[in-house]
Design a protein that fits this description.
single chain, mainly beta, twelve-stranded mixed β-sheet, 12 strands, globular
């Protein structure tokens, strides 16, 4: 069992919001057998949580606290099958790819295209000691990840306890 956590600041909204993301991962050899994640505002208020297990490979379950919605949907793509895949999804490539572009005026920074945007990596030492910024294709910053850490964990946590007080609670499948 491993726990990963980091701070994520969403900058695309009118008011930037900083959250703490925690992901617990249970491995079967090198493959992810199960995970549970939570996202909380800086005051501790839950925003989002999700879980997935290899026993239900096509069911990614999530809860969105601000609107009290529960969802079951196919797992996100691309499929993250190992802890290294998950870390790369969050923090970018472990080493600078040959096609990475240097960022002028920022020591230790480089950019790569990813999906429909750009990932900017600002190195401060080791793999976890980096800032990861996401930019739109128009060059607008959308978010920033900082303070990434990993540590052993005892077990996957259960779902948040106060879901029944989230009202109006509804469940709807996503396609």
């Amino acid at each position: 069992m491993t726990q990963i956590w980091f701070d994520e600041t969403t900058l695309a909204a009118a008011v930037p919001e900083k959250t703490r993301v925690r992901i617990w991962v249970r491995l079967d050899g090198r493959r992810i057998a199960a995970f549970h994640s939570t996202v909380r505002r800086s005051d501790g208020t839950p925003v989002y949580e999700s879980d997935w297990t290899a026993g239900r490979p096509k069911d990614f379950r999530s809860r969105e606290w601000p609107d009290c919605q529960e969802h079951t949907e196919p797992p996100p793509s691309p499929r993250l099958t190992t802890l290294d895949d998950l870390l790369e999804d969050v923090l970018g490539p472990r080493t600078r790819p040959a096609d990475a572009r240097p960022v002028r005026g920022t020591a230790g920074a480089w950019e790569i295209s990813r999906g429909v945007g750009v990932l900017r990596i600002i190195e401060h030492g080791g793999y976890l000691d980096r800032e990861v910024e996401t930019y739109s294709t128009k060059g607008r910053i959308a978010g920033r990840i900082t303070g990434a850490r990993t540590a052993p964990a005892a077990a996957l946590p259960a779902w948040e306890q106060n879901w029944s007080s989230c009202r109006p609670a509804t469940t709807e499948p996503r396609s």
